[in-house]
Design goal:
Length: 475
């Protein structure tokens, strides 16, 4: 089930990334780096508000044994709608303060006063999304769940490109986000496998939601800071144009993070939740599933680290060429995040969201290591500081496991040393003048260097599928 779900999830995610890549390339030609810098600040603020008010409705529906009951779903739906309007109101109130804060570095940030409230309409629209989205995830109906991710991205890409062609400004990305939210809203109700959504209020269900969700709220609060503190800090240290280049580099460098996060949330967590009464079996299942996540994420991470300078040098104009070198440093941060995110669903599946909060808090506090890194080594030092924060949090999370601590550490260490031993020499070789000045030779070297990890990943996945099939036949 995990392998089948992983394949569907990766196919859908791969399609969404191709759409995002295509639209990003077109928008980079039509817009200026400043627009990407502004949108990065809008995205950070919006995601921050989303996470600050997250009470874990989705994980509660997936984890709770009453998660499929109409009363539970109607109460969750009511809370979700109220939360959407709350987010929109908070955006109106906070927009002037946010704009003033960043405008001291770049006056163009004043436009956030109008950008933020309009972008926040996505929260109102999303508040009316059907609870069927979480039921599809709970029931592992990942074909439809994947389409719910892919089709809104397609709508956003088309709208953003058309808007940017006729009215080239940051508003293209804002309107694209609204279009994506509307399409997702419509499809979520069309494909709802559960009871029709309506408002309801059940005190017992409300108690269950808040009991589980209070730690989700705190966890997502610190998780936001851990994941987005870089752009908040760099928004004060860099110009909007420099922040825009960094944001584009991070957008593509974070692909393995999104891959591992998507697999953890849509595949690993629903499966682990079924083993919540057997911690030993739960950790063992996570180790097996995590191995596939690390193979896939590691191959993607290494491949992009090798190809990043060529990717940005050929497909983007000279305004964005620095993103190639930035992406190679970001590969270290990304891998450290993958190590943690590929196993952080364990405490959630065991009904211990408090542990997840503590891990996120440690990550956030340790992120302050990035500031002295920036002071002494510039942006590479900042990225190394972020990576150290993730590694410290990963170690803390592993030490809190009920079983299999040594196995989890050993698994992460083997993959990390393997990637470093294989990838670092190739990156250094690709910096030689022969490859820097000749894109054809560079592309050939990237292909030859990137194929072995990918082939090994496919082989490992295939072997796991065959092994599982043999066990099934044996039974």
């Amino acid at each position: 089930m995990a392998l089948h779900g992983s394949i569907l999830t990766l196919l859908g995610y791969g399609g969404a990334q191709l759409l995002r890549l295509g639209s990003n390339l077109v928008l980079a030609r039509l817009l200026f780096p400043d627009a990407f810098g502004l949108m990065a600040l809008v995205a950070v603020f919006m995601q921050g508000l989303q996470m600050f008010t997250d009470i874990g409705l989705g994980p509660s529906i997936i984890h709770n044994k009453r998660g499929h009951e109409p009363a539970f779903l109607h109460t969750a739906y009511t809370l979700q709608v109220l939360r959407g309007f709350l987010l929109w109101g908070m955006c109106w109130l906070l927009a002037p303060m946010v704009a003033g804060f960043f405008a001291t570095t770049d006056p163009q940030a004043e436009s956030l006063i109008t950008l933020l409230p309009v972008a926040a309409l996505t929260a109102v629209i999303g508040g009316f999304n059907s609870m069927g989205i979480y039921l599809l995830n709970r029931n592992m109906s990942l074909g439809i769940f994947t389409a719910l991710e892919l089709l809104p991205q397609l709508a956003a890409s088309v709208v953003m490109i058309l808007w940017a062609f006729w009215f080239p400004s940051v508003w293209a990305m804002v309107v694209g986000g609204l279009a994506s939210s509307l399409v997702r809203l419509m499809l979520s109700h069309v494909w709802n496998p559960g009871p029709p959504d309506r408002f309801g209020w059940n005190q017992d269900c409300l108690g269950d939601l808040f009991h589980f969700g209070k730690w989700i709220f705190l966890s997502t609060l610190v998780a936001f800071l851990a994941q987005h503190l870089d752009r908040i800090l760099l928004g004060k240290l860099l110009t909007l144009a420099e922040l825009g280049v960094y944001s584009i580099a991070m957008t593509f460098a974070r692909v393995p993070i999104h891959v591992s996060g998507r697999l953890s949330n849509t595949v690993i967590f629903p499966l682990l939740a079924r083993l919540q009464d057997n911690p030993k079996a739960l950790v063992a299942a996570c180790l097996r599933a995590r191995q596939q996540v690390l193979w896939i994420s590691g191959a993607v991470c290494l491949g992009f680290a090798l190809a990043a300078p060529l990717f940005f040098g050929v497909l983007y104009d000279e305004r964005y060429h620095d993103a190639g070198g930035i992406s190679q440093w970001l590969a270290l941060y990304v891998w450290s995040h993958v190590l943690m995110s590929s196993m952080d669903r364990i405490p959630l599946a065991l009904g211990q969201p408090k542990k997840l909060f503590q891990t996120g808090l440690l990550t956030t506090l340790a992120m302050l290591l990035a500031l002295p890194g920036y002071t002494y080594f510039g942006l590479p030092g900042f990225i190394l500081g972020m990576s150290m924060a993730n590694l410290l949090a990963h170690g803390y999370l592993v030490m809190g496991l009920p079983e299999g601590r040594a196995d989890m550490l050993r698994q992460g260490l083997i993959f990390t040393l393997g990637l470093l031993a294989y990838g670092l020499p190739l990156i250094l070789v690709l910096r030689a003048p022969t490859f820097v000045e000749n894109p054809t030779w560079h592309a050939l070297m990237v292909l030859l260097g990137g194929l072995p990890p990918l082939a090994l990943g496919v082989w490992a996945l295939r072997r796991a599928m065959v092994t599982r099939a043999d066990r099934t036949i044996g039974k």
